[in-house]
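Could someone model magnesium ion with this protein?
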Amino acid sequence: MSIERTLSIIKPDGVRKKIIDEINKRFEDAGLAIVNAKMMQLSKSDAEGFYAIHKDRSFFNDLVAYMTSGLVMVQILEGENAIQLNRRIMGATNPEEAADGTIRSDFASSIEENVVHGSDGLETAKTEIEYFFG
Ligand code: IDP
Ligand code: MG
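Reply:
Sure, complex below.
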């Protein structure tokens, strides 16, 4: 175990649902510190670049439209085992498969509109933090 940093995004549906504070309380209660944050409107090219790994997936255009549909809250979370811990707090991508009490189980409306993003590994965390805060 070590102190890590991970990139979190509260997606446009999370901002629209007015649950930024609720989500951030869950992070902080679990021991994650919010060490940087900015609210922003992603451009089409911001969203396409961020999700480039998914560019060949059938849902890519929908995903970019969703991610640019309103403001997002982009944050760096820091703490012990932050990457996996954040993934656990978020829950599975599909809210129907997300464990009870996770953000996605409690608030997501579909596999696409699932409220939060979190980096999935050390390398992606580094790249994603650089993408928004570099
Ligand atoms: P993750 O956000 O749990 O890491 P990824 O597989 O990396 O999930 O997918 C990135 C994002 O793309 C998801 O959070 C979700 O918004 C969207 N997405 C993933 N799979 C689907 C799908 O099958 N249909 C529609 N949107 C999807
Ligand atoms: Mg992912």
